[in-house]
Automatic annotation (TrEMBL):
<feature type="transmembrane region" description="Helical">
    <location>
        <begin position="243"/>
        <end position="267"/>
    </location>
</feature>
<keyword id="KW-0812">Transmembrane</keyword>
<dbReference type="Pfam" id="PF00001">
    <property type="entry name" value="7tm_1"/>
</dbReference>
<keyword id="KW-0472">Membrane</keyword>
<feature type="transmembrane region" description="Helical">
    <location>
        <begin position="287"/>
        <end position="314"/>
    </location>
</feature>
<feature type="transmembrane region" description="Helical">
    <location>
        <begin position="186"/>
        <end position="207"/>
    </location>
</feature>
<protein>
    <recommendedName>
        <fullName>G-protein coupled receptors family 1 profile domain-containing protein</fullName>
    </recommendedName>
</protein>
<keyword id="KW-1133">Transmembrane helix</keyword>
<dbReference type="InterPro" id="IPR017452">
    <property type="entry name" value="GPCR_Rhodpsn_7TM"/>
</dbReference>
<keyword id="KW-0807">Transducer</keyword>
<dbReference type="InterPro" id="IPR000276">
    <property type="entry name" value="GPCR_Rhodpsn"/>
</dbReference>
<feature type="transmembrane region" description="Helical">
    <location>
        <begin position="60"/>
        <end position="81"/>
    </location>
</feature>
<feature type="transmembrane region" description="Helical">
    <location>
        <begin position="145"/>
        <end position="166"/>
    </location>
</feature>
<dbReference type="GO" id="GO:0004930">
    <property type="term" value="F:G protein-coupled receptor activity"/>
</dbReference>
<keyword id="KW-0297">G-protein coupled receptor</keyword>
<dbReference type="GO" id="GO:0005886">
    <property type="term" value="C:plasma membrane"/>
</dbReference>
<feature type="transmembrane region" description="Helical">
    <location>
        <begin position="101"/>
        <end position="124"/>
    </location>
</feature>
């Protein structure tokens, strides 16, 4: 609810907040789009390297990168376009619903794949050989299919709840009723942000506990079943150790960049019946727009996390990729 009383000073502040929000939305969106698309494409090519693609955790990172690209394309492209021309997803109902459905579904898939990766690391680090047997590429592929189905079913109500050309809402393409808004927002908060983050931290702590108990001897179940040379065993252990570090750092950044949106949406739901001034509403809408941008940063940052925290394993795979690209370019020039 809003109050109709607006002073001259409030009007000036409203204009200032609106202009600041537009500038941030314009330039930060462009930066995040380039930053995220380049990062995720590089992620895909690096994780497709032979040394990584057969590892269950690396495979989950790979599919998560595809999902993150869809998140960025479906979310940021329309924000960028709206700064120069009419955003059709704000005016055409079916486009509005389809874009939001793709955005929420792909973001949920990306988040739950990271959760599945944390479960895989816990299984792999377990002292129980029976649990370690479940850390296989086949099992995580089955889990990925279930996650995709679950995400699609969870957000099917968007096709009923969302509508375009709305007023007095944070976005023109938004939930058309209070009940729809509460249902979709709380589903997003719980299913896409809070619940997977809680489980990620839980399995992360359990994995670190397993690692300490085994004196940092994280062993692949594949290596326990076949006879390999010592140097190959050390190589696989090194990959698993660096993948665990990459995962834990990514979970931390994911929490840091997505929890503000959850907090903001909870606040909006609790205060939805309070009388608010136009300035208060504008400030809330500006904050809402900014915390949404932070979630796109979460979708675009994994490659840079992996490069900085992935040790020699990820960086070597990246340098091998760069050398191959360089050779291709030189051959084409000849």
């Amino acid at each position: 609810m809003s109050s109709t009383t607006t002073t001259t000073s409030d009007t000036e502040l409203i204009v200032s907040w609106h202009e600041m929000s537009l500038q941030i939305n314009c330039y930060f969106s462009i930066f995040l789009f380039i930053f995220g698309i380049i990062g995720n494409i590089l992620n895909i090519f690096v994780l497709l390297q032979k040394s990584l693609r057969l590892n269950p955790c690396a495979w989950l990172f790979l599919i998560s990168s595809f999902a993150n690209i869809i998140v960025i394309l479906s979310g940021l492209s329309t924000r960028i376009i709206s700064n120069w021309t009419i955003d059709l997803t704000d005016t055409i109902g079916w486009l509005c619903r389809f874009r939001v459905f793709i955005l929420y579904t792909s973001r949920t898939i990306a988040t739950w794949l990271i959760l599945l990766a944390s479960i895989d690391r816990w299984l792999l680090s377990s002292l129980n050989a029976h649990y370690r047997k479940f850390s296989t590429l086949k099992e995580v592929q089955r889990g990925t299919i279930l996650i995709i189905i679950f995400s699609i079913i969870t957000y099917l109500p968007i096709f009923y709840c969302y509508e375009a050309n709305l007023i007095n809402t944070p976005l023109k393409c938004y939930s058309k009723t209070i009940l729809c808004r509460i249902f979709i927002d709380q589903s997003y908060i719980c299913v896409t942000i809070l619940f997977p983050l809680i489980l990620m931290f839980l399995f992360g702590f359990m994995t670190m506990s397993n690692v300490r108990k085994s004196k940092y001897r994280v062993q692949s179940p594949l290596l326990s079943r076949i006879n390999c040379h010592d140097h190959r065993q050390r190589h696989f252990k090194l990959i698993d150790r660096h993948l665990l570090i990459m995962l834990l750092v990514q979970i931390s950044f994911l929490a840091l960049l997505t929890l503000p949106q959850a907090i903001q949406q909870i606040y909006s739901t609790i205060t939805r019946n309070q009388i608010k001034t136009s300035l208060h509403i504008q400030i809330e809408n500006s904050i809402y727009s900014f915390v949404i941008l932070l979630t796109y940063l979460a979708s675009g940052i994994p490659f840079y996390i992996y490069t900085l925290c992935g040790g020699c394993v990820f960086r070597e795979a990246f340098f091998i990729l760069m050398r191959r690209i360089k050779r291709i370019i030189i051959c084409q020039q000849k």
